[in-house]
């Protein structure tokens, strides 16, 4: 009977947490589009959207409304089921990663201790890699179902790019795992809040992870699947209305999640910089510190998002052969080297 | 072919050096440039709210002027129509009747006065030709409309607001360019 005795408060807690995380990632992604336009404008000596709301703050809503109002076109020759599935899958895989990211330590509601993480699973990083790899399906299915040879080519391009860079990303993570000895993201964050951030122990690993994150999220300089100026979009060529919006939106959610991931893995996650969190809990109380921790994590995330945009509006796109050269001949050997050096260091230290 | 100007630059096609092949230092340099621009002052002018200052010789849409008491200055002499190189101006004269002295300054006035703004080239010759200072080019510009017909401006569109009844509107329509009277 143990299986049937479900703890209702537990269910409620998780349901609230899941909705909150989904809502927050959606809003953050929405406002990333606003931020993107503003950052792009400021870097090009313009001022960006200013008309919709104060400082153009309602611009994302206007954009969303516009996408909803647009005519929905499903090509005759397309595979309708897959055509609709593609953007949904892209969106879903983008959202699923957020399940294992710890957004803060814990809060106390009355007697109850609520951990600010949807699921603290002991294979957190493996789960993330599994889900991120599924992101390729969104692109592949979208390109395939369009029944357009150019979409298909672009989808192939995107898929091969993501697979190539996933390798180097995985190798960079292995080096990190040698230090942490755990796959649980919460443990990794806890280790960083007491000791050094892993960025200082794994600078090369972080660099590789960062570059691969750019490739995984299809951001410039690796936005070859899209290539909006010379190849005119690519795998979502045939999409219109909100289905196109989903693809574009999934990119921003991906960016948000990978920023959160980088902050968690290398920059201490919800650890408040320069302060000992444990001491702060004693003087300020758990809930206030949890709020500060969430703020700290979001600060880090938005710095990373700004960095993504900063890079996008600075450098041009790589050519496809350059991309593959960099991935296979640059990133992977470098990641292997990083892994070997870390392994040797760990052996030396523990021997 | 020999270069026609000294401005052309040969493209550097040397293979990338090791430093450049590392990408990151050069990218960092580029990102420094964009960050510098991020904090620069923006030259944007928020158009409808802000406008660029006009040159003193700016020539916008025409205005038919009134005198200080609000009477129309135009006497329908036709000199502007003759001066107009684009033949955009047509008018019909009429004689002032008893009791209309507060409307028209002289015995003859323009009953109909039309400027086709699509023909007009905004050269300002009408303004130069006018002996009565009745027409001048204001600082109003960018008219918009749905039909071509509505770009033929009649007297209601052209006449300046009455300086006695609506002094503020009058000053606004008059702008900086009108002659001092």
From TrEMBL, chain A:
Q: Where in the cell is it found?
A: Cell membrane; Membrane
InterPro entries assigned to the protein according to its UniProt record, in alphabetical order: NADH_UbQ_OxRdtase_su1/FPO, NADH_UbQ_OxRdtase_su1_CS
* Biological role stated in the UniProt entry: NDH-1 shuttles electrons from NADH, via FMN and iron-sulfur (Fe-S) centers, to quinones in the respiratory chain. The immediate electron acceptor for the enzyme in this species is believed to be ubiquinone. Couples the redox reaction to proton translocation (for every two electrons transferred, four hydrogen ions are translocated across the cytoplasmic membrane), and thus conserves the redox energy in a proton gradient. This subunit may bind ubiquinone.
Q: Which GO terms describe its biological process?
A: aerobic respiration
Instruction: Tell me which species this is from.
Output: Flavihumibacter petaseus NBRC 106054
| Membrane topology designation | Multi-pass membrane protein
Kindly state which reaction or reactions the protein catalyses: a quinone + NADH + 5 H(+)(in) = a quinol + NAD(+) + 4 H(+)(out)
Family (UniProt): Belongs to the complex I subunit 1 family.
Name the Gene Ontology molecular function terms of this record.
NADH dehydrogenase activity; oxidoreductase activity, acting on NAD(P)H, quinone or similar compound as acceptor; quinone binding
GO cellular component terms, alphabetically, are:
plasma membrane
Domain of life per record = Bacteria
Q: Spell out the subunit comment.
A: NDH-1 is composed of 14 different subunits. Subunits NuoA, H, J, K, L, M, N constitute the membrane sector of the complex.
The family database entries (PANTHER family) matched by this protein are listed as: NADH DEHYDROGENASE SUBUNIT 1, NADH-UBIQUINONE OXIDOREDUCTASE CHAIN 1
Q: What's the name of the protein?
A: NADH-quinone oxidoreductase subunit H
> What EC number(s) does the entry state?
7.1.1.-
- Show the stretches that span the lipid bilayer: 15-34, 81-104, 124-146, 167-189, 195-215, 246-268, 288-311, 331-348
Q: Which UniProt keywords apply?
A: Cell membrane, Membrane, NAD, Quinone, Translocase, Transmembrane, Transmembrane helix, Ubiquinone
From TrEMBL, chain B:
Q: Which GO terms describe its molecular function?
A: 4 iron, 4 sulfur cluster binding; iron ion binding; NADH dehydrogenase (quinone) (non-electrogenic) activity; quinone binding
Kindly give the SUPFAM superfamilies that the UniProt entry links to this protein. Answer: 4Fe-4S ferredoxins
The main place the protein resides is membrane
Biological processes per GO annotation:
aerobic respiration
What EC identifiers does the entry list? 7.1.1.-
Give the enzyme class: translocase
Q: Which GO cellular component does the record give, naming just one? A: plasma membrane
Q: What is its membrane topology?
A: Peripheral membrane protein
Give residues annotated as binding [4Fe-4S] cluster 2.
84, 120, 123, 126
List cofactor names only.
Answer: [4Fe-4S] cluster
User: Does the keyword Protein biosynthesis belong to this entry?
Assistant: no
The segment(s) forming the 4Fe-4S ferredoxin-type domain are 65-94, 111-140
Q: Where does [4Fe-4S] cluster 1 bind?
A: 74, 77, 80, 130
Q: How is the cofactor bound?
A: Binds 2 [4Fe-4S] clusters per subunit.
What reaction is this protein's catalytic activity?
A: a quinone + NADH + 5 H(+)(in) = a quinol + NAD(+) + 4 H(+)(out)
Give the UniProt keywords, A-Z.
Answer: 4Fe-4S, Cell membrane, Iron, Iron-sulfur, Membrane, Metal-binding, NAD, Quinone, Repeat, Translocase, Ubiquinone
- Superkingdom of origin organism: Bacteria
Gene3D superfamilies in alphabetical order: 3.30.70.3270
Kindly list the places in or outside the cell where this protein is found, as annotated in its UniProt entry.
Answer: Cell membrane
Key word Cell membrane present in the record?
yes
- Indicate the family of this protein: Belongs to the complex I 23 kDa subunit family.
Q: What does this protein do?
A: NDH-1 shuttles electrons from NADH, via FMN and iron-sulfur (Fe-S) centers, to quinones in the respiratory chain. The immediate electron acceptor for the enzyme in this species is believed to be ubiquinone. Couples the redox reaction to proton translocation (for every two electrons transferred, four hydrogen ions are translocated across the cytoplasmic membrane), and thus conserves the redox energy in a proton gradient.
What the entry lists under HAMAP family is as follows: NDH1_NuoI
The annotated subunit structure for this chain is: NDH-1 is composed of 14 different subunits. Subunits NuoA, H, J, K, L, M, N constitute the membrane sector of the complex.
Protein name per UniProt: NADH-quinone oxidoreductase subunit I
Q: Which organism is it from?
A: Flavihumibacter petaseus NBRC 106054
Name of encoding gene: nuoI
């Amino acid at each position: 009977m143990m299986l049937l005795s479900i703890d209702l408060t537990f269910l409620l807690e998780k349901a609230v947490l899941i909705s909150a995380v989904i809502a927050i990632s959606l809003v953050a992604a929405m406002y990333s589009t606003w931020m993107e336009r503003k950052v792009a404008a400021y870097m090009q000596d313009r001022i960006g959207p200013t008309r919709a709301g104060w400082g153009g703050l309602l611009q994302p809503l206007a954009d969303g409304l516009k996408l909803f109002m647009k005519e929905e076109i499903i090509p005759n020759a397309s595979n309708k089921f897959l055509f609709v599935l593609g953007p949904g899958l892209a969106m879903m895989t983008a959202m699923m990663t957020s399940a294992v990211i710890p957004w803060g330590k814990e809060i106390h509601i009355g007697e109850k201790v609520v951990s600010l993480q949807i699921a603290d699973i002991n294979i957190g990083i493996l789960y993330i890699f599994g889900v991120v790899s599924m992101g390729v399906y969104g692109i592949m299915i979208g390109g395939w179902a369009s029944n357009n040879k150019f979409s298909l080519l672009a989808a192939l391009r995107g898929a091969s790019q993501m697979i190539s860079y996933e390798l180097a990303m995985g190798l960079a993570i292995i080096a990190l795992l040698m230090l942490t000895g755990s796959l649980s993201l919460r443990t990794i964050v806890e280790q960083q809040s007491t000791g050094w951030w892993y960025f200082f122990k794994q600078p090369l690993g972080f660099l590789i992870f960062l570059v691969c994150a750019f490739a995984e999220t299809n951001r410039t300089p690796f936005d070859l699947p899209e290539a909006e100026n010379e190849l005119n979009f690519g795998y979502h060529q045939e999409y219109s209305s909100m289905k196109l919006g989903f693809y574009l939106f999934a990119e921003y959610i991906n960016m948000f999640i990978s920023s959160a991931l980088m902050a968690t893995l290398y920059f201490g996650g919800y650890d408040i910089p320069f302060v000992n969190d444990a001491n702060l809990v004693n003087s300020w109380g758990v809930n206030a510190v949890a709020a500060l921790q969430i703020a700290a994590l979001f600060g880090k995330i938005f710095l990373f998002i700004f960095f993504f945009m900063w890079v996008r509006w600075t450098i041009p796109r790589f050519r496809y052969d350059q991309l593959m050269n960099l991935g296979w001949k640059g990133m992977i050997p470098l990641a292997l080297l990083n892994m070997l050096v870390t392994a040797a260091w760990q052996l030396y230290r523990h021997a | 072919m020999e270069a026609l100007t000294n401005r052309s630059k040969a493209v550097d096609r040397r293979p990338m050096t090791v430093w450049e092949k590392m990408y990151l230092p050069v990218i960092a340099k580029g990102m420094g440039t964009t960050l510098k621009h991020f904090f620069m002052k923006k030259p944007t002018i928020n158009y409808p709210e802000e406008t660029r200052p006009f040159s003193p010789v700016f020539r916008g849409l025409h205005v038919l002027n009134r005198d200080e008491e609000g009477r129309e200055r135009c006497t329908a002499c036709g000199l502007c129509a003759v001066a107009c190189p684009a033949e955009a101006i047509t008018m019909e004269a009429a004689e002032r009747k008893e009791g209309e002295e507060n409307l028209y300054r002289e015995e003859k006035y323009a009953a109909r006065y039309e400027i086709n703004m699509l023909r007009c080239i905004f050269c300002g010759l009408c303004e130069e030709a006018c002996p009565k200072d009745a027409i001048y080019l204001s600082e109003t510009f960018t008219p918009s409309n749905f039909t071509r017909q509505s770009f033929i401006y009649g007297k209601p569109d052209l006449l300046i607001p009455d300086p006695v009844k609506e002094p503020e509107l009058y000053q606004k329509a008059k702008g900086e360019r009108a002659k001092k009277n």
